[in-house]
């Protein structure tokens, strides 16, 4: 698996659009080491809900199997861009 990066201030709608374009598995890993495979819509929902703890966002990391997916999601996370329309 590839390196991980932390998520911050992400537009959830754009992030989910980007997930639909990924080639490999993308995992959301919480501080408690829960792992959600974000290729599944059910896991996307569970993963996003787990990020909101008591009305505030908690920290999580993204791990991608495919380096191109990692690059696209990292750009989205950093610059708010990365999806192909």
In short:
The protein has 85 residues and is α+β, with helices and mostly antiparallel strands. The protein has helices at 12-20, 41-51, 67-79; strands at 4-6, 26-30, 35-37, 52-53, 56-57, 60-64. The chain has a 4-stranded antiparallel beta sheet with strand order 1-6-2-3.
Topology summary:
Elements: E1 4-6, H1 12-20, E2 26-30, E3 35-37, H2 41-51, E4 52-53, E5 56-57, E6 60-64, H3 67-79
Antiparallel strand pairs: 1-6, 2-3, 2-6, 4-5
The CATH superfamily title: HPr-like
Percentage of residues in DSSP E strands? 15-25%
Report the top-level CATH class.
Answer: Alpha Beta
Helix content: 25-40%
Largest sheet: 4 strands, antiparallel
In angstroms, what is the radius of gyration? 12 Å
Order of helices and strands: EHEEHEEEH
| Level-2 CATH architecture | 2-Layer Sandwich
CATH topology, by name, is Histidine-containing Protein, Chain: A
Give the overall silhouette.
globular
Structural class: alpha+beta
Strand order within the widest beta sheet:
1-6-2-3
The count of DSSP E runs of length 2 or more, i.e. the number of strands, is 6
